[in-house]
Design goal:
The complex is a heterodimer of chains A (about 375) and B (about 300).
Chain A: H1 2-13, H2 15-43, E1 48-53, H3 59-70, E2 80-85, H4 88-96, E3 102-106, E4 110-114, H5 119-144, H6 149-160, H7 177-200, H8 208-215, H9 220-249, H10 258-282, H11 287-304, H12 312-319, H13 321-326, H14 328-340, H15 345-370
Parallel strand pairs in A: 1-2, 1-3
Antiparallel strand pairs in A: 3-4
Helix pairs in contact in A: 1-9, 2-7, 2-9, 3-5, 5-6, 7-9, 7-10, 7-11, 7-14, 9-10, 10-11, 10-14, 10-15, 14-15
Chain B: E1 3-12, E2 15-25, E3 30-34, H1 41-48, E4 56-61, E5 64-65, H2 71-74, E6 77-80, H3 92-101, H4 107-121, H5 136-148, E7 154-158, H6 166-181, E8 185-190, H7 193-199, E9 202-207, E10 210-215, H8 217-223, E11 226-234, H9 239-246, E12 251-257, E13 260-266, H10 271-281, E14 286-292, H11 296-304
Parallel strand pairs in B: 3-8, 3-9, 6-7, 7-8
Antiparallel strand pairs in B: 1-2, 1-4, 4-5, 9-10, 11-13, 11-14, 12-13
The chains are: A mainly alpha (about 375), B alpha/beta (about 300).
The structure holds adenosine-5'-triphosphate and magnesium ion.
The site of magnesium ion has 5 residues of chain B, from helix 1.
Chain lengths: ~375, ~300
């Protein structure tokens, strides 16, 4: 327990290590949050400003305007911002000034005037078409159950129109959540740095403290396990923190999958630490070289995992699918995606178990190599 | 025997670092391992601790064969390596506690031991300091504390006083002698012959991985011909006079450099008197004069033909 606690202290005080492991994902998340957040806002549904030009309004025209005003999206935000104009010049002026996307002239039927045809003008057009098709029904409902008009209009739209992009399945609320999956996967892979330090600190030919630890009567395997458990514990806390920041600060809504994603980051961190330890133990060379290998592992794994360029996994799937089955970064991201996008728990489990087995393999190799208790040269 | 090393051979590639090296250290000794840089002192110690693989030879500690898994031997050994081995991220107190904790599990006992170790190296005011904030000498003292906190029976120190100021160095040397009085056997390596002479009961002189001489300091000095070195300050010395000095009985070597005449005599009586008589006779004026008994450097010089220090 003493050395467990000291190991955690050691990790917390390694400033550069902590930067990579915690601050980097947090900064990256912030970047995603602000950059992607803006894009998202643009594409998010905003009420369409529309003008009404009615010189002599009949009751059917009033009905139309009422329906137009009451039309809303599922969550209750109104679909249109309606302005009424008295004459044509006024309406044209507003259109030129881009205060409105178009205006509807109400006469015997409904004529739409727009400046350019874009998504908003098609929404207005769509509304008019829908309304005209269902005019009779709406009028009837308005007469018998006026309180249900809105409900009817809403139903009409959700059936016929796809105004908002609707995700495939699962619970992904934002198309940008995948960037956060990549970020979480990177956080897991960063754990390799921690594993590397563990591996260096126990090999007498790599660090002086290790020489001291090797001449002590405490069993080497015990020391290795204590270091591993301490850093793993620490890293799980850290991964939880990063996930928490994604959810609560960067407002990523993973829905009820949050728990599974957390478990995923824990298994991912296990693999990360084991990989770093293995790099420190298996490869020949000094500290710098091993640090370089660790960075290489991180970059290669994350590159093939599509964390930088998403299409790579697609090409790998065609040319060399085994990489996608075994690459830790791919496995982590896929486990998240299989949950959130496809709602596929079996795929999630397969990915995590594969990950765990890979981590276990790395760890076993490291331990087996570390049993070599004497060094050829210090 | 606390330590027995027989026919130890250690190669680094083509380089033979230890060449059939032998060593036997008895309980209660302060044993000095003296040798110039690269003579194989650290290598010997690393082999002794089973850190290094060696090519040939046997090593026994406390009468048992030393292996990497000899935990019951290891628990009674304290090691102070040549290079400082502490965690930069732990404070002085935490470092000592960490390493002591590898030997002593019991918390209360360990707390007391750590306190004693801090007192021993006089780092009381630096408990909360991180190693980076310590001066070179203070860091060395921390290094020592980390190695001896668990009160080992055998303490191995590999040049522990490098970069330590003379005052602290004396404290450390006194401390080592105190540990010895309390019952610990000490192995002390150094290339400072003064230190070794000051504290070691027995000394092995190493060169090129071999044990070239062994004994107490007096035994070692008795081994060589040199009895004393007499130095005389002389402003001007004619070559004939220098030659005449060389013809005196017992003279081994004469040199004259920087107004200093140095005459090495083998063991014999009246050496100083004869030299002074000669100088008077030749009417050579001289200033200061002093006589030195042989040092370990002289021993080393005579055995290997080179100076102990570069
Ligand atoms: N890791 C190594 N690889 C190759 N050669 C080595 C290694 N370590 C030491 N040597 C060589 O082995 C010889 C003995 O080195 P060692 O460190 O034991 O000397 P030392 O007596 O401790 O010297 P110093 O007084 O400088 O500490 C030297 O020639 C050195 O160059
Ligand atoms: Mg040395």
């Amino acid at each position: 327990m003493l050395h467990f606690i000291y190991r955690i202290k050691l990790m917390l005080r390694q400033r550069t290590g902590m930067f990579w492991c915690l601050l980097f994902p947090v900064f990256l998340g912030m970047l995603f949050y602000f950059m992607l957040g803006n894009i998202e806002n643009l594409e998010q549904f905003h009420e369409v400003p529309v003008g009404i030009l009615a010189t002599d309004m009949e009751s059917s025209g009033e009905m139309f305007v009422e329906t137009l005003k009451s039309a809303g999206t599922e969550d209750g935000t109104p679909m249109f911002a309606v302005t009424e104009y008295e004459d044509k010049d006024e309406a044209n002026q507003a259109l030129d000034a881009e205060e409105i996307n178009g205006y509807i002239t109400i006469g015997t039927d409904y004529a739409l005037t727009v400046k350019e045809s874009d998504i908003n003008s098609s929404i207005i057009k769509m509304f008019i078409d829908q309304y005209m098709q269902n005019e009779a029904l709406i009028k009837e409902v308005a007469m018998t159950h006026p309180e249900r008009v809105q409900e009817l209009v809403m139903q009409m739209f959700s059936e016929e129109a796809e105004i908002k992009e609707i995700p495939l399945a699962g619970q992904d609320k934002s198309p940008y959540t995948q960037y956060f999956y990549a970020l979480l996967a990177m956080t897991c892979l960063f754990a390799a740095n921690v594993g590397l330090v563990n591996g260096i600190d126990i090999q007498a030919d790599l660090s002086m403290v290790a020489a001291r630890r090797n001449v002590a009567p405490a069993k080497k395997m015990r020391q290795v396990m204590v270091d591993f458990l301490a850093s793993y514990f620490m890293y799980c806390v850290l991964a939880t923190l990063v996930l928490g920041i994604c959810i609560f600060v960067y407002k990523q809504d993973f829905g009820s999958n949050a728990g599974f994603i957390l478990l995923g980051t824990w298994v991912g961190s296990f693999v990360g630490i084991a990989a770093g330890t293995m790099i420190a133990v298996v490869f020949k060379g000094d500290r710098q070289k091993k640090q370089g290998l660790c960075v290489a592992f991180f970059l290669i794994s994350s590159f093939f995992g599509g964390l930088q360029w998403g299409d790579i996994t697609y090409y790998l799937e065609k040319s060399c699918p085994i990489v996608n089955r075994l690459n830790p970064a791919t496995l982590i991201v896929n486990s998240f995606k299989s949950l959130a996008v496809f709602g596929d728990y079996q795929q999630y489990a397969v990915n995590l178990i594969t990950l765990f087995l890979i981590g276990l393999l790395f760890l076993m190799i490291s331990i087996w190599k570390l049993r070599r208790t004497q060094y050829a040269s210090l | 025997m606390v330590v027995e090393i027989e026919n130890l051979v250690k190669r680094y590639g083509d380089l033979v670092a230890l060449d059939h090296f032998n060593l036997a250290i008895e309980e209660g000794e302060v044993f000095g391992l003296l040798g110039p840089n690269g003579s194989g002192k650290s290598t010997t110690i690393h082999c002794l601790l089973s850190l290094l693989k060696y090519d040939k030879g046997t090593i026994r500690v406390f009468g048992q064969e030393m292996k990497p898994t000899s935990y019951d031997i290891k628990k009674d050994i304290g090691v102070i390596m040549q290079n400082v081995a502490v965690f930069d991220e732990l404070t002085v107190y935490e470092n000592i506690d960490y390493f002591c904790g590898l030997y002593i599990r019991e918390q209360k006992e360990r707390k007391q031991l750590v306190k004693e170790a801090i007192d021993f190296v006089e780092l009381q005011d630096y408990r909360k300091f991180y190693p980076k904030k310590l001066s070179g000498g203070l860091l060395r003292r921390l290094n020592i504390a980390c190695g001896i906190a668990h009160k080992p029976r055998l303490i191995i120190l590999d040049e522990p006083t490098v970069a330590v100021d003379p005052q602290s160095r004396n404290k450390i040397l006194e401390g080592i002698q105190r540990l010895n009085k309390e019952g610990a056997t000490i192995i002390y390596t150094s290339h400072y012959m003064e230190e070794v002479e000051q504290i070691c009961t027995r000394i092995a002189i190493m060169d090129k991985g071999k044990n070239v001489a062994l004994g107490t300091k007096d035994e070692l000095k008795a081994m060589i011909d040199l009895g004393e070195t007499i130095s005389v300050e002389i402003l001007e010395l004619a070559d004939e006079v220098k030659e005449a000095v060389g013809r005196l009985p017992h003279v081994i070597k004469v040199s004259y450099e920087n107004y200093l005449l140095k005459v090495k005599f083998s063991k014999g009586k009246h050496n100083l008197l004869r030299l002074l008589d000669l100088l008077k006779e030749q009417e050579v004026g001289f200033g200061g004069l002093h006589s030195e008994l042989p040092t370990l450097n002289d021993v080393f010089l005579e055995i290997t033909g080179k100076e102990l220090r570069d």
